[in-house]
Amino acid sequence: MLSLKDRDWESFFIENIATIESGCDIYESERRKGFTPYISSTSVNNGVVHFVDNNNSTRESGCISVNRNGSVGYAFYHPYDALFSNDCRKLRLNHPSKYVGIFVAHQVTVQREKYSYGYKMGTGRLRRQSILLPVSKPRTPDWNFMDDYIREREYFIIKNYIGYAKKVTKEICISNIDTLKQKEWREFNVLTYFTPRRGRESNMSSLTNGNTALISAKKINNGLKSFVSVPDERVHLGHTITLNNDGDGGAGLAYYQPFSFALDTHVTSLRPNIEMSKYTLMFVASAITKQGERYGHGHSISDTRLKKIKIMLPVKHDELPDWEYMDKFAKQAVHQKLFLYLQYAEKYLGVH
What we know:
The chain has about 350 residues and is an alpha+beta fold. The protein folds into 3 domains: about 10-140, DNA methylase specificity domains (Adenine-n6-DNA-methyltransferase TaqI, Chain A, domain 2, Alpha-Beta Complex), CATH 3.90.220; about 150-175 and about 330-350; about 180-325, DNA methylase specificity domains (Adenine-n6-DNA-methyltransferase TaqI, Chain A, domain 2). About 25% of the residues lie in helices and about 30% in strands. It has 6 helices and 19 strands. The chain has helices at about 100-110, 125, 145-170, 280-290, 305-310, 325-350, and strands at about 10-15, 20, 35-40, 50, 65, 75-80, 85, 90-95, 130-135, 140, 185-190, 195-200, 210-215, 225-230, 240-245, 255, 260-265, 265-270, 310-315. The protein has a 4-stranded antiparallel β-sheet. A hairpin with an 8-residue loop joins strand 13 and strand 14 (about 225-230). Helix 1 (about 100-110) packs across helix 3 (about 145-170) and helix 4 packs across helix 6. It is globular, with a radius of gyration of 23 Å.
Protein backbone atom coordinates (compact mmCIF):
# COMPACT_ATOMS: atom_id res chain seq x y z
CA MET A 1 0.00 0.00 0.00
CA LEU A 2 1.11 3.54 -0.70
CA SER A 3 2.26 5.46 2.36
CA LEU A 4 2.31 9.18 3.12
CA LYS A 5 5.31 8.75 5.41
CA ASP A 6 7.84 7.82 2.74
CA ARG A 7 7.16 10.93 0.64
CA ASP A 8 8.88 14.31 0.56
CA TRP A 9 6.50 17.18 1.32
CA GLU A 10 6.59 20.90 0.63
CA SER A 11 4.38 23.88 1.33
CA PHE A 12 2.45 25.54 -1.53
CA PHE A 13 0.30 28.65 -1.67
CA ILE A 14 -3.18 27.81 -2.96
CA GLU A 15 -2.91 30.54 -5.61
CA ASN A 16 0.03 28.62 -7.11
CA ILE A 17 -1.90 25.39 -7.61
CA ALA A 18 -5.41 26.67 -8.41
CA THR A 19 -7.46 29.60 -9.63
CA ILE A 20 -9.92 31.05 -7.12
CA GLU A 21 -13.39 32.38 -7.93
CA SER A 22 -16.16 33.86 -5.81
CA GLY A 23 -19.60 32.33 -5.58
CA CYS A 24 -22.96 33.99 -6.19
CA ASP A 25 -25.80 33.93 -3.68
CA ILE A 26 -29.21 32.63 -4.65
CA TYR A 27 -31.50 34.15 -2.05
CA GLU A 28 -34.42 32.25 -0.59
CA SER A 29 -36.95 34.34 -2.51
CA GLU A 30 -35.14 33.44 -5.75
CA ARG A 31 -34.57 29.73 -5.17
CA ARG A 32 -36.62 27.23 -7.12
CA LYS A 33 -36.62 23.58 -6.10
CA GLY A 34 -34.81 21.34 -8.55
CA PHE A 35 -31.98 18.85 -8.94
CA THR A 36 -28.82 20.99 -9.08
CA PRO A 37 -26.74 21.00 -5.86
CA TYR A 38 -26.34 24.49 -4.36
CA ILE A 39 -23.14 24.69 -2.34
CA SER A 40 -22.75 26.97 0.66
CA SER A 41 -20.84 27.06 3.95
CA THR A 42 -22.05 23.99 5.83
CA SER A 43 -19.63 21.42 7.24
CA VAL A 44 -21.77 18.42 6.21
CA ASN A 45 -23.30 16.83 3.10
CA ASN A 46 -20.31 17.81 0.94
CA GLY A 47 -21.35 21.45 1.32
CA VAL A 48 -24.77 20.94 -0.30
CA VAL A 49 -27.52 23.01 1.37
CA HIS A 50 -30.24 22.94 -1.31
CA PHE A 51 -31.16 21.38 -4.63
CA VAL A 52 -32.32 24.08 -7.03
CA ASP A 53 -33.62 24.70 -10.52
CA ASN A 54 -31.71 27.99 -10.82
CA ASN A 55 -28.69 28.72 -12.96
CA ASN A 56 -25.84 31.25 -12.94
CA SER A 57 -22.21 31.71 -13.94
CA THR A 58 -20.87 29.68 -10.99
CA ARG A 59 -22.13 26.37 -12.43
CA GLU A 60 -19.21 23.97 -12.66
CA SER A 61 -18.10 20.42 -11.97
CA GLY A 62 -14.71 19.02 -11.04
CA CYS A 63 -13.84 21.81 -8.62
CA ILE A 64 -13.33 22.37 -4.88
CA SER A 65 -15.46 24.57 -2.62
CA VAL A 66 -13.89 26.23 0.43
CA ASN A 67 -16.11 27.76 3.10
CA ARG A 68 -15.23 31.41 3.75
CA ASN A 69 -18.10 31.93 6.19
CA GLY A 70 -20.19 29.76 8.52
CA SER A 71 -18.21 26.54 8.99
CA VAL A 72 -15.05 28.32 7.87
CA GLY A 73 -12.27 26.36 6.22
CA TYR A 74 -14.11 23.18 5.27
CA ALA A 75 -13.34 22.13 1.70
CA PHE A 76 -15.16 19.64 -0.55
CA TYR A 77 -14.57 18.25 -4.02
CA HIS A 78 -17.53 18.31 -6.42
CA PRO A 79 -17.43 15.89 -9.38
CA TYR A 80 -20.96 16.93 -10.38
CA ASP A 81 -22.40 20.14 -11.81
CA ALA A 82 -23.18 22.52 -8.93
CA LEU A 83 -23.85 26.17 -8.14
CA PHE A 84 -21.80 27.98 -5.49
CA SER A 85 -22.90 30.64 -3.00
CA ASN A 86 -20.79 33.63 -2.02
CA ASP A 87 -20.25 32.03 1.40
CA CYS A 88 -17.68 29.78 -0.25
CA ARG A 89 -14.90 30.10 -2.78
CA LYS A 90 -14.43 27.85 -5.78
CA LEU A 91 -11.00 26.37 -6.54
CA ARG A 92 -10.18 25.18 -10.03
CA LEU A 93 -7.01 23.09 -9.77
CA ASN A 94 -4.19 23.55 -12.27
CA HIS A 95 -4.03 19.76 -12.38
CA PRO A 96 -7.70 18.70 -12.64
CA SER A 97 -8.47 15.21 -11.36
CA LYS A 98 -11.17 13.80 -9.13
CA TYR A 99 -8.72 12.05 -6.87
CA VAL A 100 -6.25 14.92 -6.71
CA GLY A 101 -9.22 17.16 -5.92
CA ILE A 102 -10.19 14.97 -2.96
CA PHE A 103 -6.59 14.95 -1.72
CA VAL A 104 -6.22 18.74 -1.97
CA ALA A 105 -9.62 19.38 -0.39
CA HIS A 106 -8.50 17.38 2.64
CA GLN A 107 -5.26 19.33 2.89
CA VAL A 108 -7.19 22.60 2.81
CA THR A 109 -9.65 21.40 5.45
CA VAL A 110 -6.92 20.53 7.97
CA GLN A 111 -6.04 24.25 8.09
CA ARG A 112 -9.54 25.24 9.22
CA GLU A 113 -8.72 25.57 12.94
CA LYS A 114 -7.00 28.93 12.36
CA TYR A 115 -10.25 30.46 11.08
CA SER A 116 -13.45 31.49 12.85
CA TYR A 117 -16.43 33.81 12.51
CA GLY A 118 -14.13 36.68 13.42
CA TYR A 119 -11.36 35.59 11.07
CA LYS A 120 -12.96 34.56 7.82
CA MET A 121 -11.27 32.93 4.86
CA GLY A 122 -11.66 35.65 2.22
CA THR A 123 -10.18 35.42 -1.26
CA GLY A 124 -7.01 37.26 -0.26
CA ARG A 125 -6.29 34.97 2.66
CA LEU A 126 -7.18 31.91 0.64
CA ARG A 127 -4.68 32.86 -2.07
CA ARG A 128 -1.87 32.97 0.52
CA GLN A 129 -3.07 29.97 2.49
CA SER A 130 -0.35 27.36 2.34
CA ILE A 131 -0.95 23.62 2.35
CA LEU A 132 1.44 20.68 2.44
CA LEU A 133 1.62 18.46 -0.62
CA PRO A 134 3.87 15.51 -1.57
CA VAL A 135 6.46 16.38 -4.21
CA SER A 136 8.16 14.41 -6.98
CA LYS A 137 11.03 16.91 -7.08
CA PRO A 138 11.60 20.32 -5.44
CA ARG A 139 8.64 22.70 -5.95
CA THR A 140 6.78 20.14 -8.07
CA PRO A 141 3.63 18.59 -6.56
CA ASP A 142 3.47 14.85 -7.13
CA TRP A 143 0.01 14.81 -8.70
CA ASN A 144 0.35 11.19 -9.80
CA PHE A 145 1.02 10.04 -6.25
CA MET A 146 -1.97 11.97 -4.91
CA ASP A 147 -4.19 10.43 -7.58
CA ASP A 148 -2.90 6.90 -6.93
CA TYR A 149 -3.09 7.29 -3.14
CA ILE A 150 -6.76 8.33 -3.09
CA ARG A 151 -7.69 5.69 -5.69
CA GLU A 152 -6.12 3.01 -3.53
CA ARG A 153 -7.81 4.22 -0.35
CA GLU A 154 -11.16 4.41 -2.13
CA TYR A 155 -10.77 0.85 -3.45
CA PHE A 156 -10.02 -0.64 -0.02
CA ILE A 157 -12.79 1.33 1.71
CA ILE A 158 -15.38 0.20 -0.84
CA LYS A 159 -14.15 -3.42 -0.76
CA ASN A 160 -14.45 -3.45 3.03
CA TYR A 161 -17.91 -1.91 2.82
CA ILE A 162 -19.05 -4.52 0.29
CA GLY A 163 -17.97 -7.27 2.66
CA TYR A 164 -19.80 -5.62 5.55
CA ALA A 165 -22.98 -5.00 3.52
CA LYS A 166 -23.10 -8.59 2.28
CA LYS A 167 -22.70 -9.94 5.81
CA VAL A 168 -25.41 -7.72 7.31
CA THR A 169 -27.94 -8.19 4.51
CA LYS A 170 -27.53 -11.96 4.82
CA GLU A 171 -28.11 -11.80 8.58
CA ILE A 172 -31.23 -9.63 8.52
CA CYS A 173 -33.01 -10.70 5.36
CA ILE A 174 -36.72 -11.02 6.24
CA SER A 175 -40.04 -11.44 4.45
CA ASN A 176 -42.40 -8.57 3.72
CA ILE A 177 -44.36 -7.12 6.65
CA ASP A 178 -47.23 -4.67 7.10
CA THR A 179 -46.57 -1.09 6.06
CA LEU A 180 -46.62 1.66 8.67
CA LYS A 181 -50.04 2.75 7.43
CA GLN A 182 -51.45 -0.72 7.97
CA LYS A 183 -50.55 -0.71 11.66
CA GLU A 184 -52.53 0.73 14.54
CA TRP A 185 -50.65 3.42 16.47
CA ARG A 186 -50.84 4.79 19.98
CA GLU A 187 -49.17 7.53 21.99
CA PHE A 188 -46.71 6.58 24.74
CA ASN A 189 -44.63 8.50 27.25
CA VAL A 190 -40.94 7.89 26.48
CA LEU A 191 -39.98 7.39 30.12
CA THR A 192 -42.48 4.53 30.46
CA TYR A 193 -39.92 2.29 28.80
CA PHE A 194 -36.64 4.18 29.26
CA THR A 195 -34.53 5.44 32.18
CA PRO A 196 -32.81 8.79 31.56
CA ARG A 197 -29.29 9.74 32.60
CA ARG A 198 -27.81 13.17 31.88
CA GLY A 199 -24.32 13.53 30.47
CA ARG A 200 -21.55 14.80 32.77
CA GLU A 201 -18.77 15.91 30.45
CA SER A 202 -18.72 19.72 30.53
CA ASN A 203 -15.02 20.63 30.42
CA MET A 204 -14.04 19.21 27.03
CA SER A 205 -10.57 20.76 27.06
CA SER A 206 -9.67 18.72 30.15
CA LEU A 207 -10.38 15.38 28.47
CA THR A 208 -7.48 13.37 27.13
CA ASN A 209 -7.48 11.13 24.07
CA GLY A 210 -8.65 7.60 24.67
CA ASN A 211 -10.81 4.76 23.39
CA THR A 212 -14.25 5.79 24.66
CA ALA A 213 -16.59 7.53 22.22
CA LEU A 214 -17.66 10.99 23.37
CA ILE A 215 -21.22 11.72 22.26
CA SER A 216 -22.25 15.37 22.02
CA ALA A 217 -25.27 17.25 20.66
CA LYS A 218 -24.19 17.02 17.02
CA LYS A 219 -26.39 16.48 14.00
CA ILE A 220 -23.96 14.18 12.19
CA ASN A 221 -21.91 11.02 12.80
CA ASN A 222 -24.34 9.64 15.39
CA GLY A 223 -23.36 12.50 17.70
CA LEU A 224 -19.72 11.36 17.86
CA LYS A 225 -17.38 14.22 18.81
CA SER A 226 -14.11 12.42 19.61
CA PHE A 227 -12.59 9.51 21.51
CA VAL A 228 -11.57 10.23 25.10
CA SER A 229 -10.43 8.66 28.34
CA VAL A 230 -12.85 8.95 31.29
CA PRO A 231 -13.33 7.08 34.60
CA ASP A 232 -15.51 3.99 34.46
CA GLU A 233 -18.26 5.59 36.55
CA ARG A 234 -18.78 8.22 33.82
CA VAL A 235 -19.11 5.66 31.02
CA HIS A 236 -22.61 4.88 29.71
CA LEU A 237 -23.31 1.35 28.55
CA GLY A 238 -24.03 0.78 24.89
CA HIS A 239 -27.30 -0.53 23.44
CA THR A 240 -28.82 2.80 24.45
CA ILE A 241 -30.51 5.79 22.80
CA THR A 242 -28.98 9.27 23.17
CA LEU A 243 -31.15 12.38 22.97
CA ASN A 244 -29.87 15.89 22.22
CA ASN A 245 -31.15 18.37 24.82
CA ASP A 246 -29.95 21.31 22.69
CA GLY A 247 -26.76 22.14 20.78
CA ASP A 248 -25.86 22.54 17.10
CA GLY A 249 -27.70 19.36 16.21
CA GLY A 250 -30.92 20.76 17.58
CA ALA A 251 -32.84 19.49 20.58
CA GLY A 252 -34.82 16.30 20.06
CA LEU A 253 -32.43 14.48 17.73
CA ALA A 254 -31.99 10.87 18.89
CA TYR A 255 -29.44 8.18 17.98
CA TYR A 256 -28.99 4.51 18.75
CA GLN A 257 -25.59 3.89 20.37
CA PRO A 258 -24.38 0.28 20.08
CA PHE A 259 -21.15 0.81 22.06
CA SER A 260 -20.23 2.26 25.46
CA PHE A 261 -19.70 6.02 25.48
CA ALA A 262 -19.10 9.19 27.47
CA LEU A 263 -21.74 11.88 27.25
CA ASP A 264 -21.56 15.66 27.32
CA THR A 265 -23.97 17.73 29.38
CA HIS A 266 -26.11 18.66 26.37
CA VAL A 267 -27.22 15.05 25.84
CA THR A 268 -29.30 12.52 27.81
CA SER A 269 -29.02 8.75 27.51
CA LEU A 270 -32.22 6.69 27.46
CA ARG A 271 -31.61 3.14 28.58
CA PRO A 272 -34.43 0.63 27.89
CA ASN A 273 -36.19 -0.77 30.95
CA ILE A 274 -37.20 -3.91 29.06
CA GLU A 275 -35.45 -6.13 26.56
CA MET A 276 -35.33 -4.53 23.11
CA SER A 277 -33.33 -5.42 20.03
CA LYS A 278 -30.90 -3.12 18.28
CA TYR A 279 -33.39 -2.60 15.48
CA THR A 280 -36.27 -1.85 17.82
CA LEU A 281 -34.16 0.86 19.47
CA MET A 282 -33.33 2.29 16.04
CA PHE A 283 -37.07 2.48 15.32
CA VAL A 284 -37.76 4.21 18.64
CA ALA A 285 -34.88 6.66 18.11
CA SER A 286 -36.45 7.64 14.80
CA ALA A 287 -39.84 8.09 16.47
CA ILE A 288 -38.28 10.38 19.09
CA THR A 289 -36.50 12.42 16.43
CA LYS A 290 -39.85 13.01 14.72
CA GLN A 291 -40.79 15.10 17.77
CA GLY A 292 -37.68 17.26 17.45
CA GLU A 293 -39.33 20.05 15.48
CA ARG A 294 -40.98 21.41 18.62
CA TYR A 295 -37.60 22.03 20.30
CA GLY A 296 -34.67 24.36 19.64
CA HIS A 297 -32.04 26.52 21.34
CA GLY A 298 -34.82 28.59 22.91
CA HIS A 299 -36.83 25.53 23.89
CA SER A 300 -34.36 22.89 25.01
CA ILE A 301 -35.27 19.58 26.66
CA SER A 302 -35.11 20.04 30.42
CA ASP A 303 -35.72 17.22 32.89
CA THR A 304 -39.29 18.45 33.28
CA ARG A 305 -39.92 18.50 29.52
CA LEU A 306 -38.29 15.09 29.11
CA LYS A 307 -40.88 13.58 31.45
CA LYS A 308 -43.64 14.88 29.17
CA ILE A 309 -42.26 13.69 25.82
CA LYS A 310 -44.65 11.34 24.06
CA ILE A 311 -44.11 9.42 20.85
CA MET A 312 -46.32 7.43 18.51
CA LEU A 313 -45.58 3.70 18.30
CA PRO A 314 -47.28 0.82 16.44
CA VAL A 315 -49.29 -1.41 18.74
CA LYS A 316 -50.60 -4.97 18.93
CA HIS A 317 -54.23 -5.96 19.50
CA ASP A 318 -53.77 -5.39 23.25
CA GLU A 319 -52.69 -1.79 22.47
CA LEU A 320 -49.21 -2.35 23.87
CA PRO A 321 -46.16 -1.44 21.74
CA ASP A 322 -45.46 -3.99 19.03
CA TRP A 323 -41.72 -4.31 19.65
CA GLU A 324 -41.41 -7.31 17.33
CA TYR A 325 -42.93 -5.36 14.43
CA MET A 326 -40.56 -2.45 15.07
CA ASP A 327 -37.62 -4.86 15.00
CA LYS A 328 -38.73 -6.36 11.68
CA PHE A 329 -39.57 -3.01 10.11
CA ALA A 330 -36.15 -1.51 10.98
CA LYS A 331 -34.40 -4.66 9.73
CA GLN A 332 -36.30 -4.43 6.47
CA ALA A 333 -35.41 -0.74 6.07
CA VAL A 334 -31.72 -1.39 6.77
CA HIS A 335 -31.71 -4.37 4.41
CA GLN A 336 -33.24 -2.33 1.58
CA LYS A 337 -30.77 0.52 2.02
CA LEU A 338 -27.74 -1.75 2.24
CA PHE A 339 -28.88 -3.69 -0.80
CA LEU A 340 -29.07 -0.48 -2.85
CA TYR A 341 -25.67 0.69 -1.60
CA LEU A 342 -24.21 -2.74 -2.29
CA GLN A 343 -25.43 -2.70 -5.89
CA TYR A 344 -23.96 0.78 -6.39
CA ALA A 345 -20.62 -0.11 -4.76
CA GLU A 346 -20.14 -3.27 -6.83
CA LYS A 347 -21.04 -1.43 -10.02
CA TYR A 348 -18.71 1.44 -9.10
CA LEU A 349 -15.73 -0.84 -8.53
CA GLY A 350 -16.51 -2.64 -11.80
CA VAL A 351 -16.34 0.65 -13.67
CA HIS A 352 -13.30 1.94 -11.82
